[in-house]
């Protein structure tokens, strides 16, 4: 069994705290990493900064749309363009419910979409659907050759 | 010279013609007579032949009938036959009667007893089919009532059937005097083979035709075709014939005889015609033609026609020679007279030509001698206005002011001085009218003495026209120069040929500078191509004129906007001559236009900015709000944990009750208020976002089935409507053009409002109807709700305005969104309402 590492890309301190609490309450207890802008997130995923992802580890990205430097939609686009990263499950977590924006994220290939405030039941449901909940089998592992 | 025409019947020619005609008639009569004799001969032969052939036919028929007759007679007069009638012995009958059929060429036989009942019947194959030859209704006894024998014909399917019969008698009664013991009948079919045999024997063509009663045997002879026809009626049972044998033949000799007769006739007629023709040719050549030539020659007075006759040795030839001699004498005389006539004629013609020229020339021709007019043509009288000019003093007509000058010229011209021979002067007509004349005068000798010859032309009208032209030109120049717009004539190459001051002022150059430049040099480079394109089109005739807005570069380098109109002046033959350009200074208008465009762009920019601000603000405002909402939830959870902790902990009772009050009542109440506040704020922000999004959404314009769009809206509020006990009625709605999602939003908001602001006193009734009005469809959503007071009706479409802030949820943006969408679709929304009764919202949308 592999441990899933949850990446939280969220610039708002309070929102990040709320997400973390709700994840905990949903019973998701694995390792969590937080990034406060899109650039940091991309650096980690594309292994450019100090902190870098470990090949062979399974990750799940919770991505806010409105972020400084590189916004969430752009992060999503680059992740889905990158042949190494495109299998990474991405859950969009945003303050907006603009139908156009929702549609755009789905077109780019996000796995799920949630409007804030997010309740822990929603997280539990989303993670369950992605097959990542606790001891779930068949985890997509990022970084393996496709 | 004419000769009296002789009477028709007295001319020799006519008499000869009559003789010829009489001869022709006599020959014709002889031919007719000989022809009739020939025909009579043929008729006699034909009749004799017919009698002979008729006899032969009768004989053949009789002989053929004899065998059948013998059969009937012999077999009936026989004891064995009597026995057959009495015993009906079929063996005997078959051996004797059946065998005899072939012998006698009969096809059937019958035996009847004395009472008429059939005893024995035999038929061979020829008569096997079809009904029996003796009809059942026929009474045998009646046939034999008068006679011992019978002979008649019956009508059969293959032709007539000849029947012969006799009474049956014993051999002891050869005279057939005793009563009949029975009856014996035999029959033969006259079918095609039998007829063929008859035809072969008689050499005729035979056919059987139906006939009426009373037909008699006859013989017809037709000479024209050489046909002999014999008609032989065939008697029926009752004696009257029903059918007839028609036999016809063509004796071979008739055709030959007829042909030979016709050939003879043809030869005789030909000979007769040749005789008459020859006779007439001889008479014409010997008598008629010489007579005609003599008559023609004497009538026309020419001996030429007699030339062929002079060689003739008959009396006509001598006559022709005599006539020819008499013509010779008179010809010389005639020639002399003709010569004299020709000379006179040419003289008269020459004189006539000059007279015509002088009389018809439009100029006056005047000859003056000794100060008097000695010759004047008709035009002179017309120009001077006097009919009698000859002998008058010419100077009396001259205008007093010009008299000295005219008289001086006359004197000096007579004196032989070389003075100007063309000059103008004025005359005064009889009624005091002054005319201008142009004169051309020359020295000249008239009847051997000095005189002047003058040609005078009235040029008054020409002078008037010249003056008018000059005035017109001056007027044009004034119009050109004083026009309020710039006018110029521009050569085909673009050079300014002629230009008014206004044009120069607009272009900011002097007239000389303008005349030295081309329009290409002073036109703004950006506008030149369009101008040149237009000019090409005018030159090739595809357009006649054009107008455009363009810029000229002034001398100081600044631009001036002008409205230029150019047309092309052509030569009378259609070749282009020059352009006429009219320019109008439109700088101020152009500036205003540009300013307006800038303003519109500015307004558009501000609007977009504002929408972006609203979007960003509402988005950013949401983030902290979410934190507040989220942490209220967290606080609630913490409170729960705290209460659980408290239960387990040992706490003094007075603290416990104080804490209980705080945790169970005060803190939850605060949290509830915070929740309500944030929820309300969140709704406001969603509304704001939706409103700002409208400005950014692309609207589609597609034909809409409004029954479908509104139908969907009604289904989406079904649950709410049922809960409120509401009735929603939708009539058939006209189609319109718009964005289905946005139009759906409009009607959803209106229907939701109608449900939301229903009257507490009655169940809501909502009606959606519509109709076409010109180019738009007008829909109305009608309710029986609370209604809106008239002073508030205008403000309901303002964002965040709510008629009753306490009534239900909502952010006060529904109607603002409706108004915004309808506006963007190019439509209009308005309402009628009465408080306490209900409201009616109107939405007008375009239909195309």
3D structure, described in words:
The complex is a heterodimer of chains A (146) and B (848). Chain A has 146 residues and is an alpha/beta fold. In chain A, helix 1 packs across helix 5 (120-129) and helix 2 (38-45) runs parallel beside helix 3. The longest helix of chain A is centred in the first third of the chain and has 13 residues, at 13-25. Chain A is globular, with a radius of gyration of 14 Å. Helices cover 35% and strands 17% of the residues of chain A. With 848 residues, chain B is α+β, with helices and mostly antiparallel strands. Chain B contains 21 helices and 26 strands. In chain B, strands 2-1-5-4-3 form a five-stranded antiparallel β-sheet. A five-stranded antiparallel β-sheet of chain B has the order 11-10-14-13-12, sandwiched between helices. In chain B, a hairpin with a 2-residue loop joins strand 10 and strand 11 (372-376). In chain B, helix 18 (706-716) crosses helix 20 (740-756) and helix 20 (740-756) runs antiparallel to helix 21. The longest helix of chain B is centred in the first third of the chain and has 65 residues, at 12-76. The chains are: A alpha/beta (146), B alpha+beta (848). At the A-B interface, helix 1 of A face helix 16 and helix 17 of B.
DSSP helix count of chain A?
5
What ranges of chain B have pLDDT less than 50 throughout 5 or more consecutive residues?
none
The SS-based structural class of chain B is alpha+beta
Instruction: Name the shape of chain B in a single word.
Output: flat
Distance between the termini of chain B: 100 Å
Number of helices of chain B: 21
Oligomer: heterodimer
**Largest sheet: number of strands, sense, barrel closure of chain B:** 5 strands, antiparallel
